[in-house]
Every structure is written in structure tokens, then in C-alpha cells.
Please model this.
Amino acid sequence: MESQFVFGCDEYSAAGILLPPYRHPGCFELLYVLRGTVAVSTAMCTFSAGAGDFFFMTPDMVRSAAALSENAVLRSIWFSKQLFDDMTESIEYDLLYMFAVQSRTRDNRITTTSPLYVPVRRAFENCRGEYLSKDLCYSLRLRGQIMLMMAQILASYGATKENDRAIYHNVLRLRPVLDYIDEHYREKISVPQLAELLCVTPDYFTKLFRDSIGKTTVDYINSVRINRSMILLLESDMPVAQIAAEIGLVSGNYFSKLFRKVTGKTPLAFRRLTASAGRRAEEVAG
Model:
């Protein structure tokens, strides 16, 4: 049976918390700053973006955005990652994987000076228009627009300068390590243990990981844990101590300290924020 195609779009305009913490499970999300400036945050990175900037959120990353100017407006579209399950060329899978990994850990904005800006903006606006109109066969046209946009992005990504290509290929080399972290983040993970997966020395592995991913191994593992804790805070009623144990941190105090270091808030403050944001959204919808 074919996987259900998921697509949605929204627009956000508010002071302070412009985009409350949330994730679209199993979906890529493309954000567009229509007006003003915003600060976008995930468990992996935080950066500022201005009017005209586009940037991708990868599947299952909890993201939020704060308005840095009074007139900030942010638009988004999101679509199923399953749309790409039928890619037939291995190079396409590899490029998509590398793009997704580096979009998690690096500032991947598409600005107005980028060669990709015009085709990405055209696809973004066309997708919004098709979805809002819901004319006959709009879903088919949506898929076509998204696939064409991603083909252009990945082709550009794969045609970068030689030094960047070397880094991207190292991301592929690290795939067994990244997959292992995603699966075993609840457990104690050491650099020598991960280096052994690649049959390299710990010192070589440490440099390879940081140069390719943009984070130290410890910071990356902790970011994976914090993202998972955000999901649990958003989508469950689990106590903070239980969440700490669920992500592999025995100490609730250490978890709270680490969470605050990454997000600027305690876990309880984060949960209250998401709850109040959800109530405001329901009031607006009502």
C-alpha cells in the first residue's frame, strides 16, 4: 500500500514566540521569512534569519522561532519524507542523506543571492497556492513541484567546490556512526567505541566527526538526547525524571542543566511554554 502523502502550510505572525516548539513527524519543513527577522532554534543549532531567507527543518527535529522585529512574518510548508522512498539512483539517496544530516547541524539558509533562491521561492509559492486552492489533481501537482525543487537543491548540493564535497563524502562515511547514535543514544557511548565502528583511531575519529558534522561527538549525542526529550515533553505527560532516564541520563538535575544549556529554558518551563502556545493556537482557530 502506498504511504499517505502528507502536506501542509501555515503562516505565523506574533511578537515574542513566533513559532512555538513543534515537529511534523516524518516530514521535511521549509520555512520562509516573509517579513522582519527571526531566530530559529532546534536542539542542534540556533541562527538568525532575515526577510527572504529560506531554510529546511529535517524530519522529527523539534523547532521554534522567536520574532526579533515587531513585524516578523514566517511561512512554512511541510511534506512527507516518504515522497522520496522511490528514488531509484543511489546517488540521490546519498545526496538526500548528506543534505539532511548537514541541515540538522549547520545553518543551511537559502538567501536571495543564492542561485537556488528563484526556483525554491517559485516552488514554495506554487505549493502554497495549490494546497490552498485544492483544485482538481492538486496533490499530484504538489508532488511534482516538491520533487523538482528537491532535485534542484540536491543537484546544487552535489556540485559544490572540492573541499565541501570531501566533507559531504565524510558524512556518508560516518553514516554507521550516526545511525548507531540514533539507535543507542539511551546508552553510554564513548568515542573509542564509535571510532571502532570505522576502524580508525579515536583521535582521527574526533577530528573527522567535528569537521564533517560541525559538532563534537559529545555535543552531537547530547543534541540527539535533548531533541528526544523535547518530543517527550511535547507529546507525553512523563515526569522530568522519567524523561531523563528515557534519554540515558541518570541524573534529573544534570538533564535539567543540559536542557537549559541547549534551549535556555528548564524542561518544566519548556513544557509550560508549549502548553500555553497550544492554547493560544486553539483560541485563534476557534
Q: What stands out?
A: The longest strand covers residues 27-35. The CA atoms of residues 17 and 66 lie 4 Å apart. The domain at 7-160 is CATH 2.60.120.280 (Jelly Rolls). DSSP finds eleven helices and eight strands in the chain.
